Amino acid sequence: MEKETIRERLALLRQGMSREGLDAWLAADADCHGSEYVGEHFKTRTFLSGFTGSAGTLLVLPDSAGLWTDSRYWIQAEQELADTGIDLFRSGEKTTPTVQKYLAEKLPEGGRLGFDGRTFSGAYCQTLRRQWKKGELRSDLDLPDAFWTDRPALPDAPAFLLEERYAGQSAAEKLAKLRQELAKRDAAVFLLTALDDLAWLFNLRGGDVAYNPVLLAYAAVTPERALLFTDESKLSDGLRASLAGLGTEIRPYDGVYDFCRETEPGCRVMLDTRYVNQSLCSILEDRGAERIDIPNPTALWKSIKNDTEQANMRLAHEKDGAALTKWLYQVKRDIGRVPMTECSVGDLVDELRRQQGALGPSFATIAGYGPHGAIVHYEATAETDVPLQPEGLLLLDSGGQYLEGTTDVTRTVALGPVTEEQKRHVTLVLRGMLALADAVFPAGTRAEQLEAVARLPLWGAGLDYGHGTGHGVGCFLCVHEGPVNLRQRPLYGWDGVLRPGMILSDEPGYYAAGSHGVRQENLLLVCRAEREGYLRFEHLTLAPFDRDAIDPALLGEEGRRRLDAYHRRVYQTLAPRLTEEEAHWLAEVTKPLETAGGLYHEKKDFVSAPYEPRMQTI
Amino acid sequence: MEKETIRERLALLRQGMSREGLDAWLAADADCHGSEYVGEHFKTRTFLSGFTGSAGTLLVLPDSAGLWTDSRYWIQAEQELADTGIDLFRSGEKTTPTVQKYLAEKLPEGGRLGFDGRTFSGAYCQTLRRQWKKGELRSDLDLPDAFWTDRPALPDAPAFLLEERYAGQSAAEKLAKLRQELAKRDAAVFLLTALDDLAWLFNLRGGDVAYNPVLLAYAAVTPERALLFTDESKLSDGLRASLAGLGTEIRPYDGVYDFCRETEPGCRVMLDTRYVNQSLCSILEDRGAERIDIPNPTALWKSIKNDTEQANMRLAHEKDGAALTKWLYQVKRDIGRVPMTECSVGDLVDELRRQQGALGPSFATIAGYGPHGAIVHYEATAETDVPLQPEGLLLLDSGGQYLEGTTDVTRTVALGPVTEEQKRHVTLVLRGMLALADAVFPAGTRAEQLEAVARLPLWGAGLDYGHGTGHGVGCFLCVHEGPVNLRQRPLYGWDGVLRPGMILSDEPGYYAAGSHGVRQENLLLVCRAEREGYLRFEHLTLAPFDRDAIDPALLGEEGRRRLDAYHRRVYQTLAPRLTEEEAHWLAEVTKPLETAGGLYHEKKDFVSAPYEPRMQTI
Questions:
Q1: CATH class of residue range B160-296
Q2: What pLDDT sits at residue B608?
């Protein structure tokens, strides 16, 4: 973007600030629902600053401006912010003040901060108020809209009903359960704005948000009524009839604000202010409504997949495993002979998934070769793309959206010779990943009690990774789904207790900056173990791990046993979905490491790989 | 005790209650400091009820009485309470009301509950008030004292100075650090009543409490003054001079109550109401003092052993390991030939420790044979004692108090043939215990993140144990020392972060009720690992694990490697402290399981054990 354009936009914003008597303006790329992915219509911060990273907050003052973003984006932000007059604030560095602290320092006593209250959560603003007591918040303005002449329209993708053979439970049953919760808490209204919870509750899906099959909508449920606030053009006649059958009243998308303005003083409203935006929260406050601020109960219900969802997730993962196995086969077969780049192999896996029935990827595919693999949230673009060579490690983190479910899988692949150090890193990561997946534990065990199991082999070598070990996953919904998470410190909104039917990713990694990156990721389903009162995990993900990148000795006796058992299941399940050549290849690469005679230590030249002969038959 | 005596005592108590207008009386066996072990003087509940268990609360109403105790004591309590008119309330059972709930049900609105406020903590009474709002607390009475004619006197053991070559830091330095903390919190007084923290702060030790080398005392530290409230007869002239040199003023033991009565309104008093008793708390409240209720900072400082303490703890454990090894040798050698009982082998280990320099045991030795091993807090008495046979498992949990430090170790020993199931249990427990001890982890890791490592092998077999995995340990202080603990849920008062110098026990177990019990326990010291920023554990405890009770195959490749490495160290360290015969035996029983040629699977007849020939030389 032209730097001149940015400076002009900031000037126009400052005119607006001056007109409204504001001392500062806050902007983020955020929709009205606290979504992870947001459409172009909502990218106000990008519009104002030119910074295109997925995370960052812009603060504009009359004679200065700052952008706060984390270490993933510092290099990019430096380039994009140069000559715009916007200073970069490196979030996470000790010397960097928080936005709140900066406001307190820079703004006069009684200073006024403006922002679009629809794009910040009630909880965020509460913290802001607590930490910056001397100022005043003004959340009812959308200043940039006045001069954002070519602002993209709101998305208008059609919504559709998720049939019960996929959802496993009718929306009527879900609503009934929710109304029990309302009664239990003596609440008059449940205000739901989180798009995935809303999609789950009404068994609706849509196409308004990239990667996440949800529709832009709000909902309000009372003991008698269910209101869905959404653009009616999204709804087919059939869908409208179906929602009417459920007793759902359809209102315009923005009608939720009027709905809140009509609440009576003292009306008990159940809502999750981590997701409900500040505009709605402040309307309720003004009306004197009593807020019951709790995690959406729908979030926990949604996280416990029912039998139908579990069966469908298994099916989705068979399709997905077939796609990924075909990809692995092609890449391993063709590397060094057919030109490939990060982008081309990324496109290939997306295409192979589509052939298996995926409606699209569940997030932007990460194909990171060599040093790019060490950038945790790398996304290859035309500018960064590199050709793949027949050597070193390629990290592929990708997933698909199927009607049956959502997938998310990472494999680290040797494209040719790899160093001993690389093998060591791959093996330690895999060892921890398999150990966690193999854990049996009593009902009541919390995720953070088990998280270290995935890290211990790395820790033993003085290595670690800077991200959590896993996240919850939706069923044909968001690939990052709360409240489930597998972290060293639990996130707010969940007691951490693993319950049968929950799905989480198991994805330790290791990142050698400037050299290579390793991550191995399977999705796990929490199941009952044979012993009453105990639980275990089931690998949902089915795809081979590249043994060319593994040192069997370092995997340990148990690690080898675990990998062999997993590979046996991968072969048995996927072979019927593959061509004869692919199946033959899969049989070879899933042969047990642990044999009766001892360790399998095939010393092979990479070029004369076992599947080499069969290549000539293609 | 005669049941008639109990009924008479209750009648006298009720007369007192009626005289004071009380609707209920609460009693426990507790001293004025919240100590784990209390002297006979403080056993009011035992005096009133005849129930002698270490945990239990007595509530006496005008026409009924109840005793609350946990499952460890139900059988004992049934017997001891029979015909006394006291009902047993089984704490922990779902249908059992809490004392608070029971009070709320049984007592009239505005009912009055009396108790000796010196024997309940401020925090307990706060909870009581919160949960039983309709009643009134009267905490300034000691009704039983009036008719407890032969009440044992307060202990009067002499106190002594712990020299700096043991303490590693002068009391002056500790007081200076504490005063910095006072300044930081803008506090005028630190009121310290926890006996071990007090002993640590002043480098004092005593003999007033069984197993714990502490003296009965309170302390108050202000920016200028240090007051020690204790019976002056405990202090030798030298000790008095030394305390005076430190600027410490000596006051009578009960003078602390007057001291608190002299605080000014608004005086900021730092104290830990989990330990400070209700009498002191209510005096401060009445005076209008401002309480800063935080965990005693001394507790965390004390938990981080300095270099001198660490070196001394190592030395204590060498002596202790020699004692336990001699015990193991004698028991294994003589079983089936020389009569032994639980009590006799318990006495033997205590005596062997004394010979190594121990001043006494650090807790009541647990020697549990066969089914007794499954009773977690078993203590053999003349009534329960059984002869040991040359078969099955003996669990010995014991420890010593040395000037250099405190020890606590458990070994599960095969006295002869053991079943495959017993071996399986012993091996799974040992495997988890060794795996945890071998963990390397980044600084900042919390204990509850690692706890499951000790449980995973058992969990994998659908087995578990009902207690925590470990506790903190003092340095020539209490064997159970806060705030360090290794549990599934962290206890209040500690952030859970493992810091170099902390000591904790690692003691998983398995208890097959009516059959056998298994526990394997070593003390671990948190150390820095080679890799900067990482920590690891060092085994402080040195004593062999009985390989006759272990299935090497089930221990796993890593478990065998860990055991062999540990045994190598045990032998090298302890051999110089043993007789030739003992050292020879130790060499045999610490031979590696994992040999170059494969697994060590010696199939031997138990009677022709490898140390048999050398027996004839003794």
A1: alpha beta
A2: 35
Closest by alpha carbon to B267, among B198, B181, B185?
Answer: B185
From its phi and psi, is residue B247 left (phi > 0), alpha (psi between -120 and 50) or beta? Answer: left
B590: left (phi over 0), alpha (psi -120 to 50) or beta: alpha
For A473, which DSSP code? -
Per-residue pLDDT tens over the stretch A77-88: 999 999 999 999
Interface subset of A 424-443, CB within 8 angstroms of B:
438-442
What is the C-alpha to C-alpha distance for residues A96 and A90, in angstroms, rounded to an integer? 6
Smallest CA–CA distance from B531 into chain A, residue: A462
Contact A451, A488 (CB under 8 A): yes
Q: Which CATH architecture has domain A307-550?
A: Alpha-Beta Complex (3.90)
Q: What is the fold, at CATH topology level, of the domain defined by A160-303? A: Creatine Amidinohydrolase; Chain A, domain 1 (3.40.350)
Q: Is the dihedral of CA A295, A301, A302, A304 positive or negative?
A: positive
Which chain B residue has its CA at the smallest distance from A449's CA? B449
CB A535 within 8 A of CB A529: yes
* Cβ–Cβ pairs < 8 A, chains A and B: 72
**Pairing state between β B204-205 and A112-115:** unpaired
Bridge pairing between strands A534-539 and A522-528? antiparallel
Q: Which of B451, B530, B531 sits opposite A449 (nearest CB)?
A: B451
Asked if B456 reaches chain A (Cβ–Cβ under 8 Å), the answer is yes
> Smallest Cβ distance to A462: which of B449, B455, B531?
B531
What are the b/e assignments for A267-278, b being 16+ CB within 10 Å? bebbbbbbbbbb
pLDDT in tens, B390-433: 999 999 999 999 999 999 999 999 999 999 999 999 999 999 99
CATH 3.90.230.10 correct for B307-615: yes
- The residues that bridge with B401 in the sheet, in sequence order, are B360, B406
Which amino acid belongs to residue A447? A
Task: Determine contact: A417 vs chain B, CB below 8 A.
Answer: no
User: For the ranges B271-280, B573-582, B586-595, which has the lowest average pLDDT?
Assistant: B586-595
- pLDDT tier at B376 (50, 70, 90 boundaries)? confident
Closest chain A residue by Cα to residue B487? A449
End-to-end CA distance of chain A: 47
**Angle value at C-alpha B371, between B370 and B376, nearest 5 degrees:** 110
- Coil, strand or helix: which one is A463? coil
CA angle A136/A140/A143 to nearest 5° reads 100
| Domain B3-146 classification at class level | alpha beta
On the question of pLDDT at A594 being above 80, the answer is no
Q: pTM, whole model, 2 decimals? A: 0.93
B514: distance to nearest CA of chain A, Å? Answer: 21
Same CATH topology for A160-303 and A307-550?
no
Q: Is B556 on the interface with A (CB under 8 A)?
A: yes
Q: Are A62 and A111 in contact (CB under 8 A)?
A: no
Provide the residue type at B588 as one letter. Answer: E
Determine the pLDDT at residue A72: 83
Dihedral angle of Cα A39, A41, A47, A48, to the nearest 10 degrees: -110
Q: How many H helices and E strands in chain B?
A: 19, 30
Q: What is the ipTM of this complex?
A: 0.91
CA dihedral B337, B340, B344, B345 (to 10 degrees): 80
Using one digit for the tens of pLDDT, what is the confidence trace for B197-240? Answer: 999 999 999 999 999 999 999 999 999 999 999 999 999 999 99
Question: Is A535 an 8 Å CB contact of chain B?
Answer: no
Q: Give residue limits of the domains in chain B.
A: 3-146, 160-296, 307-615
Helix (H, G, I), strand (E, B) or coil at A169: coil
Inter-residue contact B189 to B270 (CB < 8 Å)? yes
